[in-house]
Amino acid sequence: MLAIVACGHSSAGPDANPDDLDGDGIANAADDCPRTPNVDQHDEDGDGVGDACDLRPALSGDRLAAFFPFDDPARDADWAAAGWQVGGDTATADGSAGWPSRANQPFYYGLMVEARFASVAWLGAAGSLSLAVDGDAVQVGAGCALEADRDGDGNDELHAWEVGGMTATMSLSIKVDPSVPVDMTAWRSIDELHNTAKLTCIAHVGMLAKVMSIPTTDFDTVGNYAVAAAAAHAVATSVIVYTSPGPPRK
Ligand SMILES: [Ca+2]
Ligand SMILES: [Ca+2]
Ligand SMILES: [Ca+2]
Ligand SMILES: [Ca+2]
Description:
Layout: H1 2-6, E1 63-68, H2 77-81, E2 85-87, E3 90-97, E4 110-122, E5 128-133, E6 142-147, E7 157-162, E8 167-171, E9 182-191, E10 196-205, E11 208-215, E12 225-244
Antiparallel strand pairs: 1-12, 2-3, 3-12, 4-9, 4-12, 5-6, 5-12, 6-7, 7-8, 9-10, 10-11
Bound molecules: calcium ion (CA) (4 copies).
Residues 45, 47, 49, 54, 56-57, 59-60, 62 line the site of one calcium ion.
């Protein structure tokens, strides 16, 4: 679990060189882990995803499904259309923004979406920052969200839910601070062999890490995803999406 979380962290600053976001000397387009420094590019199972970020490093079939370093506003027009301001190697929400992808991954049972933010600030009591998998997490699918203090204890929350299914909330034990970077991961996996499915939500706020999972009832593999903000100022520096034909084994 920790190894996978570490997958999203790089030693380079977000704007140091957007063409080589992790600063390992290998350009994003050629890098088998574009957000994880891995000079050796080793790929033990030969599936095109480097060991350093492979959900199942000894099992083939994993894919880097999408990667957005926000270095090309023309290519990221979908984000702009959904309310994100793309420019300066970032996608920024100021108030509300959403982005349901059109990129379905129908043959994959594992779907992991990770978004990294240089800054998150709530603009109101209903502030939230959400990742959705297998839909928009409003009509269908499941979601993970950072939410402004909902229970009035002074700390913000991590919230996991499946539309029509289970919901769970965990205190972050801190408040989001605009000067502190935030990483959010939503990771849906379906294990057909054992007839189980779950959603795992991971939040990193500075050095703090919180992880929670809920079982899901959905066994459909719609495979699209979304990144949405409400009543929030959020500056995204990258979004990365991995798919896997089965549950992670790491
Ligand atoms: Ca690189
Ligand atoms: Ca790399
Ligand atoms: Ca691999
Ligand atoms: Ca693999």
